Write a sequence for this structure.
């Protein structure tokens, strides 16, 4: 078993699900009201169970519909979660998972808000980056920090990778700020890609060396029309001579690796990710992967906040065979807290969906703590029939008071596979950045990983 499983090398990752407004992150902690256990509420199952719908490039048979009558793409055959969030939501807990702190602020001034994690292993060294702000989520001047590690549980101190792009202000004010997208290795070189918000919505990047030094930033994605503001650290600073060539290769990287940006809904990316679903739902934080049969799968989160709970606790999906643009996604029966999710595709085509699939009733809506963080397994990329709690029991209190946009739990992860282990990097309560690793055998090699879920 070990020899077979260790051949399951990571083919690609889609980073994945984190909470944002239009790709940003407004999330407010709130206890659900009227939260019940049992089968999914709201979903209507019709007796004929035979309606055919076209979802992008695939024809789907479904007998499930939302209360408003929108057909639902059936993709969830695992048991529905329970309300026991602090003990795994009814899913088996991966007890052999190991957890470690990557970075924790010692003071509010160091940045009490930390979120949007992204992770990569580059030449045997792990690199992590995340968004950081002293006052709250997506506040003006939000910067990007990074750290690296050569040994499990031992990380360098956090350093600025992209300094504040403008004045640091309260999150109630508007202003330019940054959000990480992902790391990339192109032609053996490591690049960090982040997005600029409230100044035209566009991507920038810089090359990072193995020793942690880095070069000047350059623009990757240009928004249509005029850029209203450039980050202060780029103003009057020349781009590196390879900037144009590197930017073109970064844009191409997404396509070559079956990926879209978290911010693929913005026109500047030219990725054509729909911002609206067939039922009119607003969609954010997209990610994609290639299923076992070769078709592309696009997931997106239905956006809502505890103050404006317009979401339905479902992931949305579209399919593409490569012959045209992305079509508007349909709702699925995959439960969502809601939060950002991601997909890791193993070499044999097995898909690991990592996020917060912890809500027991669809179409309520509720806004749950992001606990547990779960791993859902699909053999073909279309049907998820086994789920495990990767980590549960999140802290119920925040270390710092008065920081806006936080909620409890483990969320906005990015994962990679290295030497037979799954490594998942995420925020804890949007305050601390932590990492979990677990042997792949514990996920895909378990005796109970046989796909016996009852669905709903």
């Amino acid at each position: 078993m070990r020899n077979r499983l260790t051949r399951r090398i990571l083919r690609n990752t889609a980073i994945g699900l984190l909470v944002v407004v239009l790709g940003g992150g407004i999330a407010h902690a709130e206890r659900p009201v009227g939260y019940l256990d049992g089968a999914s509420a709201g979903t209507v199952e019709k007796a004929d169970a035979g309606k055919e719908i076209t979802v992008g490039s695939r024809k789907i048979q479904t007998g499930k519909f939302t209360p408003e009558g929108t057909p639902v793409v059936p993709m969830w055959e695992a048991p529905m979660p329970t309300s026991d969030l602090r003990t795994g939501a009814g899913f088996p807990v991966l007890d052999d998972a190991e957890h470690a702190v990557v970075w924790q602020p010692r003071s509010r001034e160091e940045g009490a808000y930390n979120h949007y994690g992204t992770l990569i292993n580059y030449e045997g060294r792990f690199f992590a980056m995340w968004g950081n702000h002293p006052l709250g989520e997506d506040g003006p001047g939000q910067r990007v920090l990074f750290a690296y590690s050569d040994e499990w549980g031992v990380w360098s101190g956090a350093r600025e990778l992209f300094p504040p792009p403008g004045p640091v202000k309260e999150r109630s004010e508007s202003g330019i700020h940054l959000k990480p997208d992902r790391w990339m290795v192109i032609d053996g070189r490591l690049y960090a890609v982040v997005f600029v918000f409230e100044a035209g919505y566009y991507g920038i990047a810089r090359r990072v060396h193995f020793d942690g030094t880095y070069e000047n930033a350059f623009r990757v994605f240009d928004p249509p029309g005029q850029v209203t503001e450039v980050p202060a650290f780029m103003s009057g600073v020349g781009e590196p001579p390879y900037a144009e060539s590197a930017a073109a290769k970064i844009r191409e990287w997404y396509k070559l690796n079956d990926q879209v940006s978290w911010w693929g809904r913005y026109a500047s990316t030219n990725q054509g990710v729909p911002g609206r679903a067939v039922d009119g739902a607003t969609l954010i934080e997209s990610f994609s992967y290639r299923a076992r049969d070769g078709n592309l799968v696009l997931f997106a989160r239905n956006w809502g906040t505890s103050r404006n709970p317009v979401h339905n606790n479902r992931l949305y999906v579209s399919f593409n065979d490569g012959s045209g643009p992305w079509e508007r996604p349909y709702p699925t029966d995959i439960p969502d807290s809601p939060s950002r999710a991601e997909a890791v595709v193993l070499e044999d085509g097995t898909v690991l969906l990592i996020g917060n699939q912890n809500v027991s009733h669809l179409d309520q809506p509720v806004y749950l703590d992001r606990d547990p963080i779960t791993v859902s397994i699909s053999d073909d990329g279309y049907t998820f029939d086994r789920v495990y709690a990767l980590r549960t029991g999140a802290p119920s209190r925040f270390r710092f008071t008065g920081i806006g946009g936080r909620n409890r739990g483990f969320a906005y992860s990015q994962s990679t596979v290295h030497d037979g282990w799954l490594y998942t990097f995420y925020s804890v309560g949007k305050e601390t950045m932590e990492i979990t690793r677990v042997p792949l055998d514990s996920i895909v090699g378990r005796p109970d990983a046989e796909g016996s879920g009852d669905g709903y």
User: Anything to note?
Assistant: The chain has a mean pLDDT of 88.
